[in-house]
Amino acid sequence: MQYKHQYVDGTDANLPVGKVVCVGRNYADHAAELNNPVPTTPMLFIKPSTAIVPLSRPFEVPVDFGSVHFETEMAVLIGQPLKNATHAEVDEAIVGVGIALDLTLRDLQSKLKQQGHPWEKAKGFDGSCPLSAFLEPVAVGDLQDQQIRLTVNGQVRQNGNSSHMLNKVHPLIAYMSHYFTLLPGDVVLTGTPAGVGAVNPGDKLLLELGSQLRVETQAI
Ligand code: ZN
Predict the structure, then answer these.
(1) Which tens digits make up the pLDDT trace of 104-160?
(2) Is residue 9 part of a domain?
């Protein structure tokens, strides 16, 4: 099925589906739970467009590469090109806010980190970014006061607030644009709060952003 960026009311965002630019360790409590130091500058990585699948449908968990972890993250849809952007330019370019899973092959990632190798296989594999439909930014309000919640099989596993981000959304996206031009249809993932854990086929997930976005899905 061809993926399309959409708004929650079903309107087509009329944007191509581009890359996903992500930040690691953007919440101190998550860095601590994996025994990672808090980075002094944003730690960026990219998922290709082939990572994106609709969150609203059952998503496949790879079974051949060790443990798969969920990371629940606020997602931002970019609507205008950004290169060496100012905060004001970033603000104008944000055309949607949603929620996503940054699926991670944790065993493989640990091995790659030990070897000093890049993470792409652990973070950018096909289907590694189940992504919701988007809310209009005006409907979301303050991006730094959003509750990000994941419930798995009826148990709350992640429940953090975007006020605790180490790099706030606007400076983060401006920083990203110094290295990677962001194009209309690209998506930015803003990091995960604490509580990450394994996701297995059959798990039922509920992802919530504040009280306005609520997506039920299942791992298969
Ligand atoms: Zn992440």
Answers:
(1) 999 999 999 999 999 999 999 999 999 999 999 999 999 999 999 999 999 999 999
(2) no
Q: Are 128 and 219 in contact (CB under 8 A)?
A: no
Distance 162 CA to ligand 1 centre (A): 14
- Provide the CATH number for the domain around residue 89: 3.90.850.10
Domain span at residue 36 reads 20-218
Residue 136 lies in a domain: yes
Question: What are the structure tokens assigned to 48, written together?
Answer: 């290709």
Residue 135, beta-bridge partner list: 97
Round to whole Å and give the CA distance between 120 and 219. Answer: 22
Would residue 3 count as lying in a domain? no
What one-letter code names the amino acid at 156? Answer: V
Q: How far is the CA of 24 from the centre of ligand 1 (A)?
A: 5
Which residues partner with 59 through β-bridges? 219
Exposed / middle / buried, residue 14 (Cβ in 10 Å: 0-12, 13-18, 19+) = exposed
